[in-house]
Amino acid sequence: MAGYDIITLEENCTGCLRCQLACSYLYTGLFNPSAARIQVRFSGTGCAIDFTDECNHCGVCADSCFYDALKKVKREDDE
Ligand code: SF4
Ligand code: SF4
Predict the structure, then answer these.
(1) pLDDT tens digits for range 16-70
(2) Which domains does the chain have, with CATH numbers?
(3) Which of 17, 30, 49, 67 has the fewest CB within 10 Å, making it most exposed?
C-alpha cells in the first residue's frame, strides 16, 4: 500500500480547506470538511494542521494543496 509521511508547513497554510474537501470526498463521497482525516484549525496567528488516527497516509491531501503547506515524503519501508 502506498504510504507517505505528510510534512506540514503551517506557515504556508491559507486555510482554504482544499485538503479537507479532497480527503472527505475520497473517503466519504461528500465534500464535508469535518469528516476529513486532516483537520486545519485557525488560531490567532495562523493555522494548525493535524491528522486523525484514521489517516492512511495516501497523500491525496498534499496533492490537493496549492500553497506548499503539505509535502509528502515516501516512506522508507514502503514497497
Ligand atoms: S494545508 Fe493547504 S489545502 Fe489545506 S487548508 Fe492549508 S493551504 Fe489549504
Ligand atoms: S493522507 Fe490521505 S487519509 Fe490522510 S488526511 Fe491526507 S488525504 Fe486523508
Answers:
(1) 999 999 999 999 999 999 999 999 999 888 999 999 999 999 999 999 999 999 9
(2) 4-73 (3.30.70.20)
(3) 30
